[in-house]
Amino acid sequence: MNHRHLLPEEIDLLVDNEEGFGVAPLKAHIEQCDQCRREVEAERLVVAELEQLPHLAPSPLFGYKVMKSVQVFEPWHAAALGSLRRFVPQSRAARVVTGATAGIVMTTLSAAAILIAFRFDAALFVLNLFLARARSEALGAVSHLAASLFGETAVSTLRGNGGISLAIVATIVLVTVVGTAVGLRAVASASRRRRS
């Protein structure tokens, strides 16, 4: 007589009525061991009860609802690759044109970076020239706008008095804008209080 009791896997083999070389000793064991026979019978009763339960199909949206509440972890490199794939054209010709354009842009930027690194003084000169022209154009546009709004005499007065008159005008405009904003906010608050 074998003094070892059956393992759960061995009981499952007997409940499933499996056949084979290793099943015969298990059947012989349950004929001699009352405890193992009771466990096999109890499991057979459970299986029989489970077989009688109705088979229910979940609703069509069950999987969607479950996955909606599951937080799926996506590594950063996979997310970045997925984002980049949206910008890659589908046709081969468009991919070739896009790749060539990207290559030209990268080569130009690399050459500019190398030129700036070796000729910093020339890059600084070009930057100062660009800033001076931009400032000149901006002042011309502001002067033209002021002339069309206030007239040529106001612009000549501002130019004659210099920065002091410009600072006074800027302060007046700033105070007007802030006062208007505060007044509109007060009106809106009073309107909300009346509605409540």
Descriptive key words:
0% strand; single chain; mainly alpha; 196 residues
* SS-derived structural category: mainly alpha
Name the overall outline.
elongated
Order of helices and strands: HHHHHHHHH
- Uncertain segments are none
What do the pLDDT scores average to? Answer: 84
- Rg to the nearest angstrom? 43 Å
Rounded to the nearest angstrom, the distance between the terminal CA atoms is 90 Å
Described by strand count, sense and barrel closure, the largest sheet is: none
- The number of distinct β-strands equals 0
How large is the share of residues in beta strands? under 5%
Question: What do you see in this structure?
Answer:
The chain has 196 residues and is mainly alpha-helical. Among the domains are: 8-52, no CATH class; 162-196. It has helices spanning 8-15, 23-32, 34-52, 62-69, 76-85, 92-118, 120-150, 152-161, 163-195. The longest helix has 33 residues, at 163-195. The model has no long low-confidence stretch (mean pLDDT 84).
What order do the helices and strands come in, and which of them pair?
Elements: H1 8-15, H2 23-32, H3 34-52, H4 62-69, H5 76-85, H6 92-118, H7 120-150, H8 152-161, H9 163-195
Please summarize what this structure is:
Helix content is 80%, strand content 0%. With 196 residues, the protein is an all-alpha fold. Helix 6 packs across helix 7 (120-150) and helix 7 (120-150) crosses helix 8.
